[in-house]
Amino acid sequence: MAGYDDRDGKIWLDGQLVDWREANVHILTHAMHYASSVFEGERAYGGTIFKSRLHSERLLFSGRELDMEIPYTVDEIEAAKVETLAANGLTDAYVRCLAWRGAGEDMGVSSSRNPVRMAIATWGWGDYYGDAKMKGAKLDIAKWKRPSPETAPVHAKAAGLYMICTASKHIAEAKGCSDALFMDYRGYVAEATGANIFFVKDGEVHTPKPDCFLNGLTRQTVIGLLEDRQIKVIERHIEPGEMEGFEQCWLTGTAAEVTPVGQIGDYNFEVGALAKDMVKTYEALVRA
After folding, report:
1. Three-class SS of 218-284
2. Cβ distance 140 to 179 under 8 Å?
3. Count of helices and strands (H, E) across the chain
4. DSSP type of residue 148
5. pLDDT band for position 1 (cuts 50, 70, 90)
6. pTM of the model
């Protein structure tokens, strides 16, 4: 597989489709220096992007959270995503929408005079965690913590919030793990580097309350699927030590989809019936 900078295809950039290798920015792009960027990760199944409009709406929300008004409407973003998929001849694909402060008159912390730019790229992408859907992913426990809402725009999908994710995932992979689990600033269980987490105990599902991290669209979808089955879902603060008593565990996210977890640190989980059922049910839903 070629590097992401050296592929055939088209990328939608500021309203036009350009050759993949020509979709470049200047070295003094503000986002490269100050993380003034937001993004969405989406998946298309059979030519239809799952929850596409909600992703576009969240992109605009994230931009506003960073005082960055994205110069496109939801309808325009939706049309651009469809155009990009078609230009690359893809039906089952990952879709990445990105908006950022570009290069302009400002090159300090302030960037109000710099243009807000946007791009959409799409490519084929299989299972995010490889064969973990069968065996269960193995997670490290990150040394970093998810920040307080008083210190960062925690409900935006902003690039800067992923710095600790990259560092934590690198450490996890070096240990032979697929990912890392974060605690939040209070010490409660929070999320993985790019996915929300669920636990099962005595037929009930427990999931961390998303009051300082992203309330993922896949997370919301899975909660709805569980409630449709009359399975009780409890959103609450979860102490790390409680993981010893949970029977099953899984991750949710656009890239992760629904992926069972077999181990987190020293805690072990069964890849059980409910986890397997949610993998299949979610797969059927997105391809319906």
Report:
1. HHHHHHHHHHHCCCCEEEECCCHHHHHHCCEEEEEECCCEEEEEEEECCEECCCCHHHHHHHHHHHH
2. yes
3. 7, 15
4. P
5. low
6. 0.96
pLDDT digits (tens, 9 = 90+) for 42-100: 999 999 999 999 999 999 999 999 999 999 999 999 999 999 999 999 999 999 999 99
- Do 91 and 109 fall into the same domain? yes
Both tokens of 68, joined, read 């960055």
Of 65, 95, 123, which residue constitutes the final position of a domain?
A: 123
Maximal C-alpha separation, the chain: 59
Q: Percent of the chain at pLDDT above 90?
A: 95
**Average of pLDDT values for 182-203?**
98
Single out the residue in 101, 123, 145 at which a domain terminates: 123
Distances (CA, A) of 226 to 116, 201, 252, 279: 39, 14, 13, 12
Q: How many CB atoms lie within 10 A of CB 218?
A: 22
Q: State how far the Cα of 198 lies from the Cα of 250, in Å rounded to an integer.
A: 5
Other beta carbons within 10 Å of 287: 11
Three-state SS at 288: coil
Give residue for tokens 């090159």: 107
